[in-house]
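User: Hey, my collaborator sent me this sequence without any context and asked if I could get a structure. I don't really work with proteins. Can you help?
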Amino acid sequence: MVQLPLWPAAKRGVPNSVLRGALFAAVQGKNRVAMKAELLAVQKGMEIRFTGWQLDQSDLDVWEQALHLARQHPLGTRCEFTARGFLKALGRRTQDHEWLKNAFRRLAGAVVEITHGHRTYFGSLIEGGVRDERTGRYVLEINLKLSALYSATRWTAVDWEQRRRLQGKPLALWLQGFHATHAEPHALSVEYLHRLSGSRTKRLRKFKENLVQALRDLEAAGQSNRSRSLTASCTLRACPAGASRGTFPSKRRVITLVDDDVAKYQKPSLHRRNGTSKAGQSFVETVDLITLWILVRHQLVTG
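Assistant: No problem. I've predicted the 3D structure and written it out in structure-token form, which is a compact way to encode the shape of the chain:
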């Protein structure tokens, strides 16, 4: 018997390979495009090729909930639910039946090739199913071969209530999933996150603005009980040289965020190193790194 991991009721188990790339893009549904065997952006060590109508974060919610129900049954067997109950679990209007039908059409019609390490899953994201048009009852099947994506260290339990609070905010939803798959923070360029998220925002400056807002949305949705408030503008600043190489300041170097999102370190030597002369004066580097991601994540860990 092949079965998905039994994650807690308040979580949704998702393969890391799905959350670390553009399979479920940070786009609005109206902007989706059709693809044919297209190679999608994904983190190093993985590869995703996709055919079908582009999937977005609302499609990911549907897929996560379908897998959540299916985890209680052997894969390849029937999983039953009502449209009303399913929509209620998503935090959507219980009369959104047509919206749900369209999401299942996209998921059933999509063909993916997901490679993580030496293993590749190819096939649909849901096998198919039966729907009773009178009662709204579904019988759904999930391909048992999807279990190949759920080896011990290659899936993440994502906070479901937080996703519900972020509904309608695709970039914040994408960041939530991406962030959840990493035990430690990393310095990543804005361009890299722009590509990885599948965003269709053409101007990088505008994407930076959206990124700041998405981080604020994440914090407001409760990314961590210990997180501090952000006052964000459209400006991103670079992190110190040590952090830009993927390392972090020690806990003794207290980080705060001020009105213009410039990081201030309570250590004079850092300020002098970055070209300023007075202790407490903010530093600015020209390296285009997403400082807020580093700083917010650091606050969540040490806050």
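In plain terms: Residues 224-303 have pLDDT under 50 and may be disordered. You can pass these tokens on to your collaborator as they are.
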